Amino acid sequence: MGNKSHILDFNSNAKSVQGKKAISLPVMVEDARKIFIGELESNLKQMFEEADDMLFDMSDGGYQNAHFDAMRMLRLKKDGLLKSFYKEMLNSFTESLGKRDDYQEPSIESLSFENIALVGDSELEEGIAIDGMVKKARSGNVDALDKIRTRLDTLIPNKSVTRENNPFEPVCICTAFKNASLALDIDLNSLLVVYKLFERTVLSQLEIGYQKVNELFVAKGVLPDLKVSTPQRQKQKPMSSPNTALPSEGLLETAISETSASTSLNQAPVDDQVLSLMQSLLANNRPSIQMHNSVPTTQVDTPQLINALTNLQASQFAQSAEGGNTIVDLRNVLGSQLNTSPEAIQEGALGQFNDDMIDIVSMLFDFILDDKNVHAEIKSAIARLQIPMLKVGLVDRTFFSNKKHPARVLLNEIAYTGISWDPKATDSKLVLSKIEEISERITSEFKDDISIFNGILDDLLNFKQTTQRRAQILERRTKEAEEGKAKAESARARVNQELARMCKGKSIPDSVRQLLKNVWVHVMFLESLKNNPDSWDKVTKIGKLLIWSVQPVKEATTLEKLISRVPRIVKNIRKGFDIISLSPIDATRMLDQLEETHREVIKQAQEYIEGKNQEEIIRLAPTPFSDSIELNLLQQEEQSGAVDLAPSQEVESIEIHDIGFTPEQTGKPQLEDTLDVDISQASIQAIESLTAGQWVELEIDSNSQRCKLAAKISSSGKFIFVNRNGVKLAEFYTDALALEYQTGRLKILDDEALFDRALESVISNLRAMKADA
């Protein structure tokens, strides 16, 4: 009886799992990785040199302070940090691209809450700094990153490469540097200095690394003609429940645990990390914000404050804010509602949390009502929402971290409507009336149940969808028409370029000039639109043969070929007549003129070659020919030098637009008014960064109008703008639009979520106040 082993080999099992999950990267991807990481390491070394100098300067020459200690630590750990960063980047590629899509990480059956801790202020500030670096670095390299991602997705089998698992993304680079920096035992301020230098020296140069990677892929033939369009702004949609948390999108969101808050006043609120950060920053700045001489013996609890705010928002006081864009100083008016003296409220009777919430919401609305992107009439409706939004923050603390909170999305949608709203538009009164109706409904109906915002938000989105349906159709038709126009202009420009090459150094008689202008340029244009290389080559060679057939001849062999091949040229010209449906009368007239020209060319050539008298005229006799023309004839004749001008013949200078299409028809009009103006590179970059869907304020006929960029035609460099109703208002070429921007006649509006921008501004201002304190 054999002995059966009862020993389990866990290592072999692990190796089996490892083998299943790992996939080898293509050689081309490894080459791109080497180039990219090498570029990062070079910039990182430069960063360490600058960090050494900066930290020494900040230490003021002292040897016993945090900055000097940080400088010394950086010198000691520099080599190790470089190696650690290199390993982190390699691991990033392995973890992101070295696993199959069907691989699943081993499940975690239990999770101990002893290992979970709230993120401290230092870690949170560090996370905010890194998150800001990531967003800034990515915003400047969106197109390059999308091209790299698309090419990686093509190269790597059994793996879908997305933004989340693309190791070239700035978030991967920042994470690698953050992990490598864990070895640095330095204070937070010094670490933030290092991060700032990392952003300035390494992240700001990512464009060069991305360019080298894409150039490598193009050189290797990986999607060399790839063009990636920037997606339009995605509208936020309401969540199904007020307590649904938003998935983390950046390092800040990763650091912040988005916990659901109870909507019941009887339950203890759950702390929110964004709110906690702002409260912490407020505490550091409190002496400059409010001075409490003493703590009242009795304090107002949150339910009492909410009831008082409910009465206040429906009172005559709240109604008085309807006509103006002003912030309500709640502490001065809450006393009558709470039966508390204004002095007691100023001294802290509301409690620290309630006081902080009032300050935070007031600062948010300060930013919102100062925003230049929203029309004043829309701001009036938004101003009335200060008290309701304060109550939302008191009831649900995830209001500040959950980007899909219905009240927050509603506020953003109202603000976005305010960006596109035009008081002169036909539907302006209807839109303004709807927003005022929403504001009135919130102030009159909202008490403490935030589910009301779900219904109001759905109502607003349905209203916008209904009113904008016709505008969207018109905008789509405008875009399609402009894209078709751009394609036609590009085809005409191609015809002009080819025509210029045909006619260069050639003598073009009037009969041929008229035939080219009225017939053959249109034949070439139609074939160019078809995008068929064979057809295009055929019509261009026929055009070259036509021009060749009317050039002065001085050799007998060339004359013989000309006489035998003229009928073939004429036959193909007739086919061109059929393609453009030329009338028989015009066709006969042009062929008669062409025949006279050919007779004259042959006559002059014969006199020149044989010395015969002027009266001896050669009659063109029909010559048998096959259906297919010898399209390589012209190339053979030119190479042999048989086509040449007679010594007495002078070539007339030809303006190509007299034969081909005009500059306006090719989409290249003369911009005489911009020729003498020096357009800055910053203005050009600002215009080129515009994406379809972006709202701007443009001066048209001495009137400022808000319009949307409906289409950005890359082939012609043309920008098409429409109004809120989808009607085309203006079109500009890149230089002309850059001039409008440079002179202030064009203002680019910030249509990002208003509440998000306000929140970032408040946190930034509080941190600045803390630094100055």
Report what the structure shows:
This is DUF1631 domain-containing protein. It comes from Aliikangiella coralliicola. Pfam families: DUF1631. InterPro entries: DUF1631. With 773 residues, the protein is mostly helical. The protein has four domains: 185 residues, no CATH class; 194 residues, no CATH class; 145 residues, no CATH class; 85 residues, SH3 type barrels (Roll). It is built from 29 helices and five strands. It has a five-stranded antiparallel sheet with strand order 4-3-2-1-5. The N terminus is likely disordered.
**Structural domain count:** 4
Class derived from helix and strand content: mainly alpha
**Share of helix among residues?**
55-70%
Low-pLDDT runs of 5+ residues are: 1-21, 102-119, 229-271, 288-295, 612-631, 637-651
Quick one: overall form? extended
Strand content: under 5%
Overall pLDDT: 75
What Rg, in angstroms, do the CA atoms define?
37 Å
Oligomer classification: single chain
State the end-to-end distance.
Answer: 84 Å
Biggest sheet statistics? 5 strands, antiparallel
Could you give a quick summary of the protein structure above?
With 773 residues, the protein is mainly α.
Question: What topology emerges from the helices and strands here?
Answer:
Blueprint: H1 10-21, H2 27-58, H3 66-97, H4 121-139, H5 142-155, H6 170-180, H7 188-201, H8 206-219, H9 251-255, H10 273-289, H11 302-313, H12 316-320, H13 330-338, H14 342-346, H15 352-370, H16 376-383, H17 386-395, H18 406-420, H19 428-445, H20 452-503, H21 510-530, H22 533-548, H23 556-579, H24 584-610, H25 633-640, H26 656-659, H27 681-688, E1 695-700, E2 703-713, E3 718-722, E4 728-733, H28 734-742, E5 746-748, H29 754-772
Antiparallel strand pairs: 1-2, 1-5, 2-3, 3-4
Helix pairs in contact: 2-3, 2-7, 2-8, 3-6, 4-6, 4-7, 5-8, 10-29, 11-13, 11-17, 15-17, 15-29, 16-18, 16-19, 18-20, 19-20, 20-21, 20-22, 21-22, 21-24, 23-24, 27-28
Protein name: DUF1631 domain-containing protein
Coiled coil: 464-498
Keywords: Coiled coil
